[in-house]
């Protein structure tokens, strides 16, 4: 992959002046954790080490990769036996450490190595609902940096999903449900949100991690008490200053799929957030749309598509920039 494949966001550095980092999680089937660890280690010129039943680590230049089948089973006394028995139904995960954008081609190389080792993705017919998550460091945890991104995602989510619909198995599962329509409306009216107003609106409409964009890690980092008061303490949330973007499929066995391609889809969110006039045009259109007495299915997506196209932004075009044939 070339550097062009991972085009930088409008704000490539955080507010402290350091390059923003991106963590990547890949879910796949078809090969055992040991084989996956060896494939990743070959890319990183490192030696894999087993840390438990079905669990491996590989130290790379930017930190430690984790490769495992299931964290819960790994902690049980009979974990190794259960991991072996569950091999056909529990996917393997390869979790890269947060890396500067310039180092993401290394993740792409690891994905290629995993494919060559026999890893299969969500279209393989296993009905496992395999996904790829991006943990994109926020520019800061201040409202001025969070509110525009969250509003942008809520307003163009239908367009993002339509650009490359997720696998049927993942749609049937609740893990990447879209934001409720009422939250998109709230976001459209949320130009004046401060952090508290944003958090309250989000928690009111999204009391779950099961969204295409999970904002709970950021909210918990800034105001854990508010999150716990809304959701209770049963939901496990790792606090971190990152957007947990869960929408993409992992199609690791398909030659025309790439990590960079999905990065391009996320990039559109940040580009909209960085253009206040465009963001407010989408917001105004959404509020006008909501005033209709009757709306046909898919109508808001068509409207948001048209606004994005007029602004020179297209989800499918952004994704194509990161496709293997474009980046070759």
TrEMBL record:
This is Putative amidoligase enzyme. One of its GO terms (molecular function) is ligase activity. It comes from the Bacteria. Pfam families: Amidoligase_2 (PF12224). InterPro entries: Amidoligase_2 (IPR022025). It comes from Albimonas donghaensis. Keywords: Ligase.
């Amino acid at each position: 992959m070339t550097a062009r494949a991972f085009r930088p966001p409008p704000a490539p550095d955080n507010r402290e002046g350091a390059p923003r980092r991106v963590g990547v999680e890949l879910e796949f089937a078809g090969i055992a954790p040991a084989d996956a660890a060896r494939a990743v280690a070959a890319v990183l010129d490192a030696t894999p080490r087993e840390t438990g039943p079905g669990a491996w680590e590989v130290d790379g230049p930017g930190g430690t990769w984790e490769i495992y089948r299931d964290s819960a089973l790994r902690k049980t006394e009979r974990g190794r036996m259960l991991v072996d028995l569950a091999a056909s139904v529990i996917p393997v995960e390869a979790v890269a450490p947060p890396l500067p954008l310039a180092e993401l081609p290394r993740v792409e190389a690891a994905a290629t190595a995993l494919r060559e080792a026999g890893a299969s993705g969500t279209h393989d017919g296993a009905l496992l609902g395999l996904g790829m998550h991006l943990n994109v460091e926020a520019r800061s945890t201040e409202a001025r940096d969070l509110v525009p991104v969250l509003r942008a995602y809520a307003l163009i989510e239908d367009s993002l999903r339509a650009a490359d619909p997720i696998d049927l198995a993942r749609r049937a599962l609740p893990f990447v449900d879209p934001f409720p329509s009422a939250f998109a409306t709230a976001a459209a009216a949320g130009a004046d949100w401060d952090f508290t107003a944003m958090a309250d609106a989000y928690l009111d409409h999204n009391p779950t991690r099961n969204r295409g964009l999970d904002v709970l890690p950021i909210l918990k980092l800034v105001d854990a008490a508010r999150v716990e008061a809304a959701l209770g303490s049963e939901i496990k949330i790792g606090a971190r200053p990152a957007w947990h973007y869960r929408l993409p499929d992992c199609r690791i066995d398909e030659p025309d799929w790439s990590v960079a391609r999905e990065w391009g889809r996320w990039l559109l969110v940040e580009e909209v957030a960085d253009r206040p006039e465009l963001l407010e045009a989408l917001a105004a259109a959404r509020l006008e749309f909501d005033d209709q007495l009757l709306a046909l299915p898919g109508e808001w997506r068509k409207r948001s598509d048209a606004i994005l196209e007029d602004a020179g932004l297209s989800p499918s075009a952004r994704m194509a920039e990161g496709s293997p044939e474009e980046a070759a």
